[in-house]
Amino acid sequence: MSTSLFRKKMIRILLLVFLISFISNSLLSQVLTDTQKEREEIFVARIKQFNEFADRFNLKTDFNGNIADSVFRAKMPRERMIPLLFDLKDPRIQMSGKEYSEAYTRTKEEFVEEVTKKNILLYKYSPGIIAEARSRVIYKGAPRQVRLFLGQEITGNNSVKWVILSAKGDILNIFKTDTSMVRFIPPSSNETDFINLKRALEDTDYLQYYASQDYKPDLLTLFFYYIKAGIIKYEYVEEVVYHIIDIPGWYIKVKEFNRNELNSGWLITDVMKNELDLPAFIRNL
Amino acid sequence: MLKKILITGLILSVNLCITAQETKTAVTSKQAKITDEINLSDADIEVFKEQTKQKVEEFQQYIVTLGNKDEPAEKRNMAEKEALKLFYKGAEMEISTVMPDGTVQKVNRPMEKYLARLKSLPYTKVIIKFYDIAYIREFTKGPDGKYYSTATIIQEFTGFSDDNIIYTDITKKEIEIIIDIVEDTFFHEKRWKIFLGDIKATETKAAVS
To answer: Any idea what DSSP says for residue A156?
Structure first.
């Protein structure tokens, strides 16, 4: 790259840093008008991929995706960068709005402070990053939604793959709850070679009550069965949301905001404290 | 002679079976093992990142040419053919459209069909522009030994009827990038090559007048 080209690029990045740093939330959508050059600036500022979100969170790269140098780090330290990774249109942080939440604003500030002071980085291939693929399926001729949760698995030779961890959705909730009746297989049934089993298994909506008290239906197996048996047809992913518990004590939710503004792309849409371990967290999603 | 033909046929059908089993998400264990044993160094990956930019630019140039109705038909056909050569076999284009009720509908097309449609759009003139910037994430090795990345680009599309703009949109495209080992049949040697894979296109701004 020639020196003049490099200098031009640097000036552009610094201008963008200046613009992003000094812009106030309410002005975000107004400052830039709609010319191509400005749209290009928005494209540069936009967090285009989840990978870029992680790199900006860790202050690994500048807005052009190049390794962040000392000049960039000085202009845009993490305590300034991380607040810009939040959805700045969240009504909970609009002080003048009806939905303003002081508690959420405080939590957000506490999160930024802890992450920057302790210099906590986000590990891209962490098992604590769970992608939720909200998927459209066709069930009994009508479109329905199934939520598939995926995690990354590091296999031999440092290769990485995404794996399906669990599935959730109304169509996978095959049992009903009923507290008005006590359902069970009587204690002496064994002596009659479990004649009662037929009766129990005809009670199709409430089969779970005939299982152990520790029984938890495996919805992913049920989903796989539905697909294999042709009961549901998988169409496509409607939306992806990331649930991140890689940062000790915290949970952040990241989703894509497809808008023509500097504050767009993959942004933090929620932050809260988290004490759950990974299996419990996935169960609670 | 008949025996020879039968054996050749059997070998061919076995080969076809093996090829049929290989998809974008599944390769034979043998193939994966061979590729997995060869690793790219960080320096190699940096070189490939640079080459990815060139491949993406090459694809953009073909799109501009095949969409341009002022270009001669032979040149546009050639652009379509050359653009397809950049892609991994079976690559698809997924187009998302935001419906008036805010829901998103997606349509998947094989890359061949997408390019053919682009060439024959019902406008008298088409202008396709790309921003001269792209974002390319770092390459990560997959369990099949290939290296994967994604490039993000922005495309501006304008369709004219005579001199009037009748459709315009700005689309963000995420292009899957795959580095795979291919055999050079001429030199009988294996080498790494960059391919483009599936593309996810999301409309970021549209206006129909």
So the answer is: G
